[in-house]
Amino acid sequence: MSSRPVLGIIACQRTVGVEPAQAVMERYVRAAMHHGDVAALLIPSLPDLMSAAEVAPRLDGVLLTGSPSNLESHRYQDEGGAKEMGEGPFDPGRDEIALAMVERMIGRQRPVFGICRGFQEINVALGGSLRRDTSASAELIAHHAPDDASFAGMFDHLHPVTLAQDGLLAKAFGKTELTVNSVHFQGIGRLADALTVEAQAPDGLVEGYSARIEGAPVVAVQWHPEWDADRNTDSAAFFHLLGRAMRGEA
After folding, report:
1. Is 163 domain-assigned?
2. DSSP structural state of residue 90
3. Residue 176 lies in a domain
């Protein structure tokens, strides 16, 4: 039996009970391994104990997941030009490892995929910025459910996205429109120059992008395909694309 490519999946710094933990929600791991047909290793966000340079050569691709935490704002300039702290919670260890992993994996010409926070991290790593008002701006549709929504109810908050004609995602999904869940308070402010828009919300907010940088495939979405990948063929298609990219087929 031939070995499968190995995907690195970023971990977050969380608290479990009273103890600090390195954690990844299982839905990301299962969706990637099952629908991408890959093996996986978790990447601790412990920059005081390891570097991205040590980990990247051991991986065939990386997935930067969603998280309740936000990137620290000093790592980017929001579209208003301000660098005030913004709203947490924050995970500076993850920021450091994730942004460095983007650089290192691209340098190795290996796939970089992102979901939600990971979508934002890749944009920042490549020189883009974020905006922090995607659930409250009068200019935008609501990109997060009301505060009193249940956990499952957050993922029932949906809106359509339009996929770029002849774009990578449109080809992968076989359509030019999707209905996606929307569970984010931050979003793209300025898209990094290297990235190409693949999906947009009705208000124009970028919801998906792709690139091929130094030979490395880069694909990320703002929504959460891992949430319903076993029930939704469009969501499963995101992870099929990841698996193909890791095998050099996409």
Report:
1. no
2. B
3. no
pLDDT in tens, 103-148: 999 999 999 999 999 999 999 999 999 998 876 777 888 888 888 8
Q: Can you spell out the DSSP letters for 110-154? A: --EEEETHHHHHHHHHTT--EES-TTT-TTS---S--TT--HHHH
* Any domain includes 238: yes
Instruction: Give tens-digit pLDDT for 189-208.
Output: 999 999 999 999 999 999 99
- Residue 73: which CATH number? 3.40.50.880
Query: 130: left (phi > 0), else alpha (psi -120 to 50), else beta?
Result: beta
Q: What is the count of structural domains for the chain?
A: 1
44: amino acid identity, one letter: P
**Backbone angles phi and psi of 103, in degrees to 5:** -60, -45
Phi, psi of 209 (to 5 degrees): -150, 165
Q: Are 230 and 224 in contact (CB under 8 A)?
A: no
Nearest alpha-carbon partner for 39 in 218, 234, 221, 243: 243
Measured distance CA(84)–CA(73) in Å, rounded: 7
Residue 36 lies in a domain: yes
| H/E element, 33 | helix 26-36
What per-residue confidence (pLDDT) applies to 1? Answer: 44
The domain of 41 spans 6-132+185-246
pLDDT (average), residues 234-242: 98
3-state secondary structure of 105: helix
Closest of 7, 125, 126, 25 to residue 69, by C-alpha: 25
161 vs 197: CA distance, rounded Å = 12
pTM reported for the whole predicted model: 0.94
Mean pLDDT, the chain, integer? 93
Is the bond leading into 146 cis (omega within 30 degrees of zero)? no
